[in-house]
Amino acid sequence: FAGKLVPQDPSDEPAAELLARIRASRPAPVRKKARA
Description:
The chain has one helix and no strands. The protein is an all-alpha fold.
């Protein structure tokens, strides 16, 4: 593993779009009320 950068693949989607898609596909975290 040399750690070299690879050429950009024009067919790759932007990271922001990828993150948004992952966020949309994940169920929203359930907020539980803390009991005192």
